[in-house]
Amino acid sequence: MSGFSLARIVAMLVKEFRQMMRGAPTALLLMPIIQLLLFGYAINDNPHHLPTGVFVQDQGEFSRSILAAMHNSGYFDIVATAHSSAELDRLMALGEIDFSVTIPGDFTRRVVRHDNAQILIEADAADPSATGSAVAALASLPATALTHDLVGALSPDAGQAPFTAVVHNRYNPEAITSYNIVPGLLGTVLSMTLVVMTAISLARDRELGTLEGLLATPVRPVEVLIGKLIPYIGIGVLQTVIILILARVLFDVPETGGWAALAIGTMLFTTGSLALGFLISTIARTQRDAQLMAQFYFMPSFLLSGFLFPFVGMPQWAQVIGSLVPVTYFLRIVRGSLLKGQGLADDWSSLAALGLFTIAVSALAILRYRTTLD
Q1: Could you list the residue range(s) of the whole structural domain that residue 126 is in?
Q2: What confidence score (pLDDT) does residue 374 get?
Q3: Residue in 16, 168, 17, 2 with CA at minimum distance from that of residue 101
Q4: Going edge to edge, which strands form the sheet with 50-56?
């Protein structure tokens, strides 16, 4: 054999390029584009227009000015008007509002008399990054909200604010980031491991030739699906128990209850993730293709579910995509159960979404497997 040969190098380049193109070239090209779009447009750690509920017992002009000033700040959108404090608590527990504002009935009288007027503003601090900037913006509210209303004899003394905004952070008053991140890891870990493990399952059988052995047996597609998923369900349950124990022991994450919703949500999410991995494995030709396709699912699950970045801070189109990701609903169940003590009645919508996802993906996986057999 002669020495260095440019022709042989070119031949190897052509061979590798053709081999690469037989795999998943579209995935390799789209991945950086998707990452650029998600990080550039969808991620926002300073969310505005946060849903806010109000309970106004004083219908005077001062109350309207305060609510207008909050709205004009860009951080607060008033989406609900409650008739009691209990109703506000319920809306916040369900995640329908991030802030609640209570203006007492004697507010106007106290402002006019300079008698220590107060309003109560409560923030859902389960995710500190979602509400932190808005809470900071409230510091200037007492000094600016009533500037055009308190003139002449009503003007407060120099250096004295006409009222005080008492801010309470709920569910995570110390704004400990791990209280939000660690429970969220449960969804991302399960999604990453279970989808990938099952995604390469049938692809591996096809590559190793064991799929032909299954074709020669009387095993039905649904029986193959159940037989392949049950061991991985056990792995998912074990991972869940380990993460919950470590979250409590190492990070002191509060676990306030809601175990029924958490258990059902975990089973639905685990089964649905495994069925999705099985569906991917029926489409992919090789194990590498299966892994790349699983990454396409994992990327929006990681970035658009509210795990690392506030869901409410994303643009509307990104929230629509995030609403199609099952991790989004599972994270709401996990965080709601651990931090807020939510039960089945509180999490029914998220549980229903996970149930529909599991049924739909399982049905598609069975149909695809039938096609593979044919």
Answers
A1: 50-170
A2: 52
A3: 168
A4: 76-81, 50-56, 99-103, 117-124, 163-170
